[in-house]
Design a protein that fits this description.
Layout lengths: L9 H20 L8 E6 L13 E5 L2 E6 L6 E2 L2 E2 L2 E5 L8 E5 L2 E8 L2 E7 L4 H4 L14 E18 L6 E14 L2 E10 L2 E6 L13 E6 L6 E5 L4 E2 L33
Antiparallel strand pairs: 1-9, 2-3, 3-6, 4-5, 7-8, 8-9, 10-11, 10-15, 11-12, 12-13, 13-14, 14-16
Length: 269
């Protein structure tokens, strides 16, 4: 008996590639101490206080976070058990300093000059109930070519955040111009020409997709100045899944007029 194996069509290969990417994305979200494990966000003041469900006493003085705890509280920093006073100094806008408490992590962060403790708990319902990310059906028609025009010098662009009073500062490398259907659109690109990404909203935002922003990794600019925007791979920011993230909103320049019916949908709908 002869078995004939048909070569996959370009569409089949495209869909399979997207499926592998999508499954890897979901696997990353299942990280026991990743974004879906967030179970609390506590803003600190200059008054020592106990935080709900968190051992020790926490406060801020002179841009330093002070933690007072006893060995029985089981708080560890850099592999050492806190027994007395511990000082940590998180960096503005960066991942925080991890304070371990058995299976949990208390992440000390700094945002817009304010300090907070973010709780990662692998037992939180957001993570344990996670079954995947809703997305539009993959479609190669949502892969478009754009032209990148670099700024002479990188610019710092400030956006708001999903938390009132916070700001995010992004390094903008240039503008991407592209066409979707009958609409000419532009996007402000962050990063460097070797590794671009965009934050955007569109006519689906707040209807079928998360309203604050979606993110799209673009990668490197080609030698001829073109870039590929595969909107099938537009993803939600962490704040779409949890109320305890401090994500940016899209810049005003990146509010597309068209409906980008591709990529991840709002998980709360």
């Amino acid at each position: 008996m002869t078995i004939t194996v048909e070569n996959p069509t370009p569409t089949t290969t495209f869909t399979d590639d997207w499926s592998r990417w999508h499954h890897a994305r979901e696997d990353a979200l299942r990280d026991p101490l990743g974004w879906l494990s967030l179970a609390g966000l506590h803003w600190l003041t200059d008054s020592p206080e106990r935080l709900d469900g968190i051992p020790g006493t926490w406060w801020v003085t002179d841009e330093k976070v002070f933690i007072t705890a006893q060995p029985a509280d089981r708080l560890d920093v850099d592999g050492e058990r806190i027994g007395g006073v511990q000082i940590v100094k998180p960096v503005e806008g960066a991942p925080g300093v991890s304070v371990f408490n058995e299976a949990k992590i208390f992440e000390v962060i700094r945002r817009s000059g304010q300090y907070a403790v973010r709780v990662h708990d692998p037992a939180t319902p957001t993570l344990t109930a996670f079954t995947g990310v809703k997305a539009y059906p993959v479609d190669p028609r949502w892969v478009v070519t754009g032209r990148f025009t670099a700024f002479e010098d990188a610019r710092t662009v400030t956006t708001g955040a999903v938390v009132d009073g916070l700001e995010h500062h992004h390094s903008a490398a240039g503008i991407i111009e592209f066409r979707v259907g009958d609409s000419d659109e532009t996007l402000l690109a962050f990063g460097t020409p070797d590794n671009l990404k965009v934050l955007f909203t569109d006519a689906t935002s707040g209807i079928t997709t998360y309203p604050a922003a979606r993110s799209l990794a673009i990668g490197a600019v080609e030698a001829d100045g073109t870039v590929t925007l595969d909107f099938n791979r537009a993803v939600n920011l962490p704040c779409a899944f949890t109320d305890f993230a401090t994500c940016p909103v899209a810049p005003a320049e990146n509010r597309l007029r068209v409906a980008i019916e591709a990529g991840e949908q709002d998980p709360k709908l």
